[in-house]
Structures are given as structure tokens and as C-alpha cells.
Protein 1
Amino acid sequence: MSGLETIAKFGCLSDENRWNANRYDFPWLAELDEHDREIVKLLDCLRDGEYSGQASTTQFYDMLINAKKNGYPEELVADWSPLFSYMYTIVYEEMRHGIVLGLLYHYVTTGKTDYIAQVDVRDFGKRYIWCYEERRYWDKYSYILTHLFSEVINTELYRDVVNRVHHPELKAALANIRNDEARHIAAWTALIKDMINADPRHKKAALASLERGLLYHNAMVHETYFEGLNKMLPLFLSNQGDKLDPIRRITRQKYRILGELFGDDNPYSEKEVQDMHLDYLRTASGHTRAKFSEDSPTNIEFVA
Ligand SMILES: [Fe+2]
Ligand SMILES: [Fe+2]
């Protein structure tokens, strides 16, 4: 195997499934009912999260460049090449998601459709690309794993939002995003598996960094992540009397992926993955802002 087959495959899948953004002109916006508008109003932090794909990619490149400078072996740097390549797809597709959500939010909060024209690019760069300096929670292995496992959350969140909204065009727009996120799960899984199998040193390092990779969301790189987490929790559908259902769906997927990546070396049971998640949610509950801290064992310091 050349090592490029997986990236070629998922590059083609992205091409084949590329949805038409219709030049970000959505004539159906005025038809949204009150229920749909209320849901869209909860999605401003999710818009920020989508755009922060720009920051997490920048931080990822920054990490690898620094690792190379600081003596990380060249053959191991080279094994990351397909992941470098896939980051381009992520940056582009997450940007498309951000524009769709930004446009929807701008319309329901202002009644205007001039969203893209009124974005200040300097503010954009500051908020969504260069926001990572004070939120370096990861090493390179936990970071790439975080990119993978966060897509599980993204997919499940969009699945529930799609189920909730009424307007068929809004449903379709959000379903396009959901499908991209699901493809990102498959691509990251396959690409990380290739890397892990390329050299036992990768597997050892990935296992050592697994906990944070499994639990932290790569969108924690931007300012409003925890505000969004608390705001959007109610959007996860749950069966009456079974509030754990969304967590169970997420846990099941993450556990399946752990098995796929690490086989018998996966250190966590499904129950442990679920308990870790619940702990994380409890800690994050009620907070809106966080930054990196050396003083905390989680490296998260809540500042609001
Ligand atoms: Fe996305
Ligand atoms: Fe994604």
C-alpha cells in the first residue's frame, strides 16, 4: 500500500458528495416559522465552532512544524502527510458549514441577507484563526484524535437538529452538513489508522494521549465553545425519561472507533467512555469561557 490510497479515496468522496451552496443565496429564509427561528438563534456558537476549523488546522500545522524543529524523527513526520492533506478538506468544508450557519443566524436576528458582505475579515481572522494561542490543550497525537472524535459529536448534534426543524430546505441544508461530518468521521478514522499502523511509535504515543483525544472537542480552540456547549445541550433529542440516550449514541460510536484504531490495546470499556463524558459535561456545566492553564490537571481554566 502506497499510503496515499486513503487520502485519494476520501478526497474523491468529498468531491462526489459536494453539495451545491447555491452561492449562499437562500430564497426560502423568509418562510422559516417561529420554531425554526428559535432553533437557529441557538446556533451562533456552533457557527463559531465551524469556523474554528481554521484555527485547529493552523494549530495542527504549527504543532507539527515545531515538533520537526525540535527533533521529532523525520520518518515519523512524513507519516503524517495524508493527515496534512486531509486538513485542507476540513478547512474548506468546515468553512462552508460556518457560512451556512452564519447566514441563517444573521437572517433570523437581523432580517438581513447581507451576511457575507458585512463580515469584517480582520475580526474573522482574530476570532477563528489566531484564537488558539491561549487554548493549546493538546499534544499532536491527542489533537489529531480530538479532530476525529469531535466529528462524532458534530454528526449526532446535526442529526438531532435536522430532526427538530420544520422547513424542508432548512432540513436539507443542515443534513448536508451532517453528512459531511459523518464522512469526516470515516476519513479521520481511516487516516489515523494508517498512521498508527505505519510505526509502533505512533500507536504508543496515540495511546498515551488517548484520554484527552477522546474527550476534548477540537472546537475548544475558540472562545465561545463552552457557551455553545451549554446552549446547545437541549438540542440533543432524548426519549422521554431517557436523557442519557444521546450520550449513549455518542459513546457507542466512540467505542466502536477505539476498537477499530487500537484493537485489543484499547484501554477503555464502553461504560468508562460514557462516565468520562458525563464527568466532562458536569465540569463544563454553567461555564461560558475557558483558557489553558498549567495549574489545572485538565489544563482547562474556566474564566466565566
Ligand atoms: Fe462542520
Ligand atoms: Fe467536520
Protein 2
Amino acid sequence: MFKGIATGVLATLVLGLLGAYLCVVMGLMPANADAKPPRLESWAARKSLHATIAREAPKIPNPVAMSDVNLIAGVKLYAANCVVCHGAADGAPSNIATGLYQHAPQLAKRPVTDDEEGVTYWKIYHGIRMTGMPSYRATLKETQIWQITLFLKHMNELTPGAEKAWKSLPSQAPGT
Ligand code: HEC
């Protein structure tokens, strides 16, 4: 009796794996970026991201001081590394931002000012798997990542110098 159940479970597992393998090699698993993510996929990706971040994001306060110099450095780093996907102060998306699967949020319209700084730091440092969000671990210094984080946290309450630098970044909207 037990042997029969075990064989049945094993056969189901093998068939399931074989089915999944066939879906992959026959191209039945969607590979296009111009689709709306299925709800199950979005749910699983979000849940897993939140749980990972809750476990791993640094809990320390931003080690970089809130100052004009650091905020302006953050804006400049944002301009060089992020603006093409996350947009300038007008919140108008580039073609790249719109075409990505997941779309890149325009941070001027959907700011992350309410997020803990450790969470934003984690996302920039590690990137977000299976989205266009790159990891900057290999290309930016930790201090630079904290400077961008500082700018994103205080985007709505910048010092006059940083505000000027932010507002003067060119729009990413096509044709501008
Ligand atoms: C090639 C495009 C691309 C670039 C360049 C990029 N990102 Fe992203 N980013 C994304 C995408 C796509 C997402 C959405 C991921 C998702 O849906 O979970 C994202 C998500 C984020 C989020 C989370 C937003 C939220 O609402 O929770 C933050 C913060 C972020 N990026 C910051 C940055 C910063 C800072 C840089 C530059 C250092 C950067 N990104 C560069 C594509 C990009």
C-alpha cells in the first residue's frame, strides 16, 4: 500500500518535472517583455522580494550626512546611472522605462521617500532579480550608493543647491 502511494507520488513528480522541462525547451514559457505579468508571478516576486529585504536590508541610519554636498553628489550619480529608467523631475518615462518588463517607476511621480533608507540602499546595491533594475555593487562605492539613497529619501525636501541640480536634469520623454 505504502509502496503504491510512494510510486504514485514519484511518478507525478517526474511527470511534472518533465512537463516543466518540455515547456521550457519548446518555448511555451513566455519569453517576451511586452506582456502584463500574470498575477501569480507578480505576487510571488513581490512576496519574495519583501521577505529578502526584511531579512537583509541594513538597519543602520544613513552613514552619509544630510548636506548640500552629499545631496548634489546623489543627484549627479542619479543622472549618470538611473535617470534613463527612473526619469527626471517631470516624471516623464523614456522609451526604455516604458518598454521594460517590469516598467521602471518614475521616481518623481512615485517617490520612495517613505521607504527606509536601508531598503533603498539594498535595492541599488543588489538590484532586483528578473527586472531591469541593475545591481550597482560592482560599479559604485558604498558611499556613493548612500548618497543616491540620501537624495531619493529627501527628494521632496532638498536643499536649494540640490533642488536646482535635480530640476535641471533633462527630461527623458521621447522627442524632448
Ligand atoms: C535599466 C533600467 C534601470 C536602471 C538603469 C535603474 N533601475 Fe531602478 N528599477 C528598474 C525597474 C524595472 C524597477 C522595478 C522593479 C520591480 O518592479 O520590482 C526598479 C526599481 C527601483 C526601485 C524601487 C522602486 C519602488 O517603488 O519600490 C528603486 C529605489 C530604484 N529602482 C532605484 C534605482 C537607482 C537609484 C538607480 C541608479 C543607481 C536605478 N534604480 C537604476 C529599472 C532600472
